[in-house]
Design goal:
This protein is of the alpha+beta class and 232 residues long. Helices cover 26% and strands 26% of the residues.
Length: 232
C-alpha cells in the first residue's frame, strides 16, 4: 500500500475512531485522541454590551423555560458572541456565559457569569478534562462526607448544628489555585464557605477541597485539604 493511500485511510478512520471512543466512554489511559476543535479556549469568552440586560428583558422576559434559555442563546448570537461562546452557554444548566478563561495545562479554568440566577451569579468550571466540564459547585463532584472526619468541622457543627456548606468567592480570578502533581497531573484548590444555616447567614468557617486530575486530564475526585474556623 502506498504512503498516500495509507494517509487517505487514516484521514477517514481517525474521525470515526474518535466518535466510537466517545460513544463507548473509552478510558483516557487506553487511548487519547484530541483535536483542536474539541477543546475550549479563550474564544469562548463573551463580553456583553452594557445594555445587555435591558435588551434581554425586552426580548425574553415574558418567556418561560426552556424558551427563555433559547431566547438567551439567540440573543448572544445577535450581540456578537462567538460560536464557541454560544456552544458553552448551551451547556450550562441555566443561562450562563464565560467571562474569563485561563489556560492552566490539560485542564483549564472557565469563569462563568449567571446573570439571571437569584443567588450565586458567578461560577467556576474546570474544562477540557474528563468529564469535559465540571462545575466546582456541583456537589455531586465534591465528597462532602469527608468533612465528618475533620475535627475542626465537627467542632463547628457541635456549636452550630445548622452549619452548611456554600460556594466561596467565584468572582475573583485568584481561585482556584492551580498546582502541578507528580506524574504530570493537575490539582485545583477550591474554597467553600461554611455558614450558620442559610445563604445569607453568618460565615463561620472555610473548607478547602482539591480537585485532582491525572496526566490525561481524567478527574480522580476531590480531597479535603483543611477546615478553618472563623468563630471562637
Amino acid at each position: 500500500m502506498s504512503h498516500n493511500t495509507t494517509r487517505q485511510l487514516n484521514n477517514k478512520i481517525l474521525p470515526v475512531l474518535f466518535f466510537i471512543l466517545l460513544a463507548r466512554g473509552a478510558d483516557a489511559q487506553d487511548v487519547v485522541v484530541t483535536t483542536a476543535a474539541t477543546r475550549i479556549d479563550s474564544n469562548v469568552v463573551w463580553h456583553p454590551p452594557s445594555d445587555f440586560r435591558k435588551i434581554m428583558g425586552r426580548r425574553c422576559s415574558a418567556l418561560a423555560s426552556p424558551n427563555f434559555q433559547r431566547c438567551f442563546i439567540s440573543l448572544m448570537t445577535d450581540l456578537g458572541a462567538s460560536a464557541e461562546a454560544v456552544r458553552f452557554a448551551a451547556l450550562t444548566d441555566t443561562t450562563g456565559y464565560v467571562r474569563h478563561f485561563i489556560n492552566t495545562g490539560i485542564v483549564d479554568v472557565a469563569y462563568v457569569s449567571y446573570p439571571f440566577r437569584a443567588n450565586e451569579n458567578f461560577g467556576i468550571s474546570l474544562v477540557n478534562g474528563i468529564p469535559d466540564m465540571i462545575d466546582v459547585d456541583d456537589f455531586q463532584f465534591v465528597d462532602l462526607t469527608t468533612l465528618k472526619k475533620d475535627s475542626v468541622y465537627l467542632d463547628i457543627v457541635g456549636r452550630f448544628p445548622d452549619a452548611s456548606v456554600w460556594p466561596g468567592d467565584r468572582f475573583a480570578f485568584d481561585q482556584p489555585v492551580s498546582q502541578s502533581l507528580t506524574g504530570g497531573g493537575q490539582r485545583f484548590i477550591v474554597s467553600y464557605n461554611i455558614r450558620n444555616g442559610c445563604h445569607a447567614c453568618e460565615q463561620i468557617g472555610i473548607a478547602r477541597f482539591a480537585f485532582d486530575f491525572d496526566n490525561y486530564g481524567k478527574f480522580e475526585g476531590t480531597r479535603l485539604l483543611d477546615v478553618v474556623s472563623l468563630v471562637r
